[in-house]
Amino acid sequence: MIFVIIVGMALVTMIPRVIPAFIVDKLQFHDWVNRWLNAIPFAALGALIFPGILSVKPDQPSIGLLGGLVAAVLAYLGLNVVLAVVGAIITVFLFSM
Questions:
Q1: What's the whole-model pTM score?
Q2: Chain centroid to CA 86: how far?
Q3: What is the 3-state secondary structure (H, E, C) of 45-92?
Q4: How far apart are CA 67 and CA 97, in angstroms?
Q5: Can you tell me the mean pLDDT for 17-42?
Q6: What are the residues whose beta carbons fall under 8 Å from the beta carbon of 88, sequence distance 6 or more?
Q7: C-alpha closest to that of 83 among 35, 31, 45, 38
Q8: Mean pLDDT score across all residues of the chain
Q9: Which domain covers residue 62, as residue numbers?
Q10: Number of domains in the chain
Q11: Which of 33, 43, 35, 40 is nearest to 72 (CA)?
């Protein structure tokens, strides 16, 4: 009985994740939708990182804000999300020394 419950729970969580992978490839979106979807990784990254920006150095929050600004500029220039994060990390490291 426990095995059936585990398999059922696996199916219930797997199906909503697998179906969009097959459907999205067949859909044609408008250009504005594609632009909006391309912005999601940066928006999610900003929502995850922003609370930590102010607490990088609690006595000097401007260092964290400067690192966030560098990440925003790099993202605006179209760099990869990973490169924007690395640029922010390097900036914070250099100004913390």
A1: 0.54
A2: 14
A3: HHHHHHHHHCCCCCCCHHHHHHHHHHHHHHHHCCCCHHHHHHHHHHHH
A4: 14
A5: 84
A6: 67, 68, 70, 71, 74
A7: 45
A8: 88
A9: 2-96
A10: 1
A11: 43
